[in-house]
Specification:
alpha+beta; 7 helices; D-Amino Acid Oxidase, Chain A, domain 2; 2 domains; 208 residues; binds flavin-adenine dinucleotide
Length: 208
Amino acid sequence: MAVYNVESHIKLEPDCVSYTTPGNLGIFYCLSGQRLVVLNIWRDDNPEPQGGEDRFGVLKEVCKGSYSLAQQVVKRAEEEGSSLMIHSLTLVNPPRWSRGRIVLVGDSAFCLTFFSGQGAGMTLVASEVLCKAIKAMPDLPSAFSNSEKQMRPAITRLQSRVRALAAAYLPTGTVAFHTRNILLRLTLRWVVAYYHRKGISEEIMVAQ
Ligand SMILES: Cc1cc2nc3c(=O)[nH]c(=O)nc-3n(C[C@H](O)[C@H](O)[C@H](O)COP(=O)(O)OP(=O)(O)OC[C@H]3O[C@@H](n4cnc5c(N)ncnc54)[C@H](O)[C@@H]3O)c2cc1C
């Protein structure tokens, strides 16, 4: 994923728009003062952050053949000397969230990536579960392991969900891309609403 902000006179309606092409997703947010924040997300089998010194080179290659807005703003950002970050969207999944008196919470323990739209929510839930466990058990390693036991099943379900969502957001080839678009148009709104409600209900169930 690449993120940067750039001066732009392009007026977006609504304030946030996204475009998908096979294997590439661009999200554009309008800021005040005629600036745009741009996220570009693409598939890459290499889990390491890309680009080194030539990050704009990597991004231009990614946006080659993409919609013109993507190419236009990358060019503008490079001319402007905008600060560009490239990072892999990794589903963090260590075998344990704690060792001795050290405990991980939030993205460092179970990053759900931005595809889920629930990372911050689950971080708050996990923090609450952890605090309650510490309050109930003065022995820290037991409190950590108990809160992990409570959170793990929901996180595992949400991470499987994120893998499916990522595939839907970033279909690989042209056939997969058009199939996804047709299915999305045919899918009833309540099915989509049900799918998202189910994810949110995980947060509520674990917090209770
Ligand atoms: C583009 C995008 C969109 C998202 N949209 C949503 C959404 O709609 N809903 C949602 O619920 N979640 C969303 N998320 C996910 C959400 O932002 C994260 O899951 C959440 O912020 C995780 O919280 P955290 O406290 O674990 O980590 P962070 O919020 O990343 O906090 C970690 C902090 O540690 C600091 N830090 C790092 N290294 C060091 C160091 N060595 N020393 C000192 N400080 C350090 C960092 O600067 C940072 O401030 C989105 C994420 C992204 C990237």
